[in-house]
Write a structure and sequence with these properties.
Elements (H helix, E strand, L loop, with lengths): L7 E2 H6 L18 E7 L1 H7 L7 H4 L5 E8 L15 H8 L5 H11 L7 H14 L1 E2 L9 E4 H11 L8 E8 L2 E11 L19 E4 L4
Antiparallel strand pairs: 1-4, 2-3, 2-7, 5-8, 6-7
Length: 215
Amino acid sequence: MGTILQPIHFALLSLGGAALVMCTQNAFSAPVQGYVMSVQMTPAVCLIDSTKSKKRKCLEGYSLNIEGLYPEVATRECSTHSSAKLPPLQAKVVARVMPDDAARVQLWQGIGGCVPMNASQYFRMIINNADRINVPAVLTGQDTQTVQLGQLRSLFLKSNSGMSSKSIHFQCSNHQGSSYLTEIKICYNSAGHYKQCAANIGSNCPSQFVIKGSY
């Protein structure tokens, strides 16, 4: 197994150090108990799912990208017809962690009706949360490595203040006899602090799995 280096700040990896302020929530919207951020391991997803091979995140060699920040709400109907259009500068910042414009629009149209903010505020919250994540360097290297689940979780907890073992979960998919890490789920309260994930969110990775290197 290759050497696991020190954590890299997510902003340095994908956001160029941009720091944006958390938005103010709209009191007239339905209450949100918390949010779940889905961080996708791009090289593994591009390897396993050939339908995504021509997506920008695959073609340009992203090591990871944010798939979405999903609200925890009682209702299941969260669609909206409100605009997902962002100011040009913000759109460029968001594209560094969510490179697929169509996926970004689809995400907002699917969950925008359940978040107490507009699209610009919502994507600002994603960037704000991503900016604070310290990502272990093993997740962004060029080499494919086999890692232990407990070791990777410990790296996250040591480098992210306030995160607990119940705040983060790992999802894996099988490919040609090996289990690859494809997704990391991180849970937040409505104020943007780490919290225990809901009971329906968990890890399915075995004790040892593969992290696909970035091409």
